[in-house]
Amino acid sequence: MGIQGLLPLLKPIQKPVSIAEDFAGQVIGVDAYCWLHKGAYGCAMELVEGKKSFIYVNYILKRVNMLLHFNVKPILVFDGSYLPSKAGQEARRRKTRQENKAKGLAFLRAGNRQQAQECFQKCVDITPEMALEVIKECRKKGVDCIVAPYEADAQLAYLMKAGIAQAIISEDSDLLVYGCQKVLYM
Questions:
Q1: Among 22, 57, 77, 182, which has the highest number of CB atoms less than 10 A from its own CB?
Q2: 34: three-class secondary structure by DSSP
Q3: At what angle are helices 128-140 and 32-41 packed, to 10 degrees?
Q4: pLDDT of residue 14
Q5: CA geometry: angle at 59 spanning 54 and 64, to 5°?
Q6: Overall pTM > 0.85
Q7: Separation of alpha carbons 96 and 123, rounded Å
């Protein structure tokens, strides 16, 4: 989720990098749920309708292959359980997802697929089964995958602080608070 408004404040100290030039031969930790969410947007309607889709798996594999192509070793870190301290926040998110699903189904029944799709993208719930599909495919490529006890942030920060990873790919500004020096937002 991140700290609202932090990244725009840090814009003046951000700099563009090249994966190929700046990180070849290095290890990058990846917040896998960020990629899972992005990949799931492409098949949101199928997922809500309970249809099998691997669009989200292919989305992640495309990015993994890009890193491998540039001689970067990715380590994908997946969220585990919800933090007990965030139970209220998760309940609100679940309620919002259910409301968006109901709206999307109503739009679909009315023949408005575009608005239905927009609602479905807001209600996609990333399941452990979806994460497992990605993990299986990544392991076939020899890519390391870690399932964190709770949120991936702490494990990603550990990988960097321990010198295992030289950078982290995420969309979450929390990693900066955890002390990660190089966070790639892509």
A1: 77
A2: helix
A3: 110
A4: 81
A5: 120
A6: yes
A7: 7
